[in-house]
Amino acid sequence: MITNRLGTAALFLAVLAIAYAAQPTSLDEKVKALQDLLYRQPAVRMNMDRWKTFVRQQPRNYSMIIMFTALSPGVNCPICK
Predict the structure, then answer these.
(1) How many Å apart are CA 30 and CA 51, to the nearest integer?
(2) Distance between CA 12 and CA 24 in Å, rounded?
(3) Radius of gyration, alpha carbons of the chain
(4) Separation of alpha carbons 19 and 12, rounded Å
(5) Within a domain: residue 72?
(6) For residue 24, what is the DSSP state?
(7) Do 6 and 30 form a contact (C-beta atoms < 8 A)?
(8) What is d(CA 44, CA 54) in angstroms, rounded to the nearest whole number?
């Protein structure tokens, strides 16, 4: 009976975490996170999560300059090296 309640509680918490993660980030939170990243280093390296959050996701009332590089050895890009 206790394990059944623990399983139900764990399932509830998992659903709650997924619902919370699906909520869009507010503009103030996004700008604050970008400022924190820029204080650490002047060029922010984008991964897929950062790309979706800061570039693709609304609301976004700011502009970004994105420089794509091809660091893969198979591409052999002389400018990117």
Answers:
(1) 12
(2) 21
(3) 19
(4) 11
(5) yes
(6) P
(7) no
(8) 11
10-residue averages of pLDDT along the chain (81 residues): 60 53 73 90 86 87 83 72 64
Contact 6, 12 (CB under 8 A): no
Q: Cβ(38)–Cβ(66) under 8 Å? A: no
Tokens matching residue 48 = 């897929």
Can you give the residue range of the structural domain that contains 38?
25-81
Say how many domains are in the chain.
1
The pLDDT of residue 7: 60
Q: How many CB atoms lie within 10 A of CB 61?
A: 8
Cβ–Cβ under 8 Å, residues 68 and 76? no
73 phi and psi angles, rounded to 5 deg: -60, -25
Decide if 81 is inside a domain.
Answer: yes
